[in-house]
Amino acid sequence: MNEKLxxxxxxxxxxxGEVGERVAGLAARGIVPRxxxxxxxxxxxxxxxVGAKARACEKLGMASGTxxxxxxxxxxxxxxxxxxxxxxxxVDGILVQLPLPDGYDTHAVLxxxxxxxxxxxxxxxxxxxxxxxxxxLVACTPAGIMELLRRxxxxxxxxxxxxxxxxxxxxxxxxxxxxxxxxxxxxxxxxTRDLAAVTGQADIxxxxxxxxxxxxxxxxKPGAVVIDVGIHRITERETVERLFxxxxxxxxxxxxxxxxxxxxxxxxRVAPLASRITPVPGGVGPLTIAMLMANTVRAAxxxxxxxx
Length: 308
What we know:
This protein is α/β, with parallel strands linked by helices. It has 12 helices and 10 strands.
């Protein structure tokens, strides 16, 4: 089984090493790339993600800042903060931690970010550049998936790729990246009829629908490469026992922590069919933060006219 696993942790470490070399090169010019994160509200998962990003910056010798606002701070307060960071020449990357609390216009906030500092790749200008095949800053999770495929030497050109999930964060930008890499791409969603008939044609199957264990063996062509973007925290013993029967190590983690993580793919039943597959955790997740660091260094370089 181990030879099938696509080890996102190892690949993320490779990417961070390369980013660290670029950070050192910029430091020699007196430049320290800086990422600033805006956190609105007190969502526990968002706090964890923001902390992880700050630690990643620190380990690479980059600067970072976290700007916390109360959930009720209001749209105008968030937009003023974005404007201040846009105007600060020392800030290279701006990230708004999503989701924002109810009542905020997420698109209005993201559209306000300077495209040159949009390290999440969500601004309409960066999305449009990606559409045209000349991206500057690309959404981190799709960029990480493409790095995984490239570094693992998984052929993309001429292959049939199916993505389950059409979000602006993963599904749509990944479809563009795969298309520019000369794959034949199908984008599925909640209204796709006979999902298994479509996914069963995939040489590369990406599960990014946000639904626990949606993809079972009936959805997978033997020999397909399966990329699981989903991440779900399971807190019910019955669900753990159903999805991971006989997995004593996972059950021990559940007993110790009260939860375990799983993805959009029913890993135990799908893995025997796949030629390669990402685990959850340890697959796509580590690559996302690594690519965020890479985007921040790229933004710092491009903003100063340095070849990135």
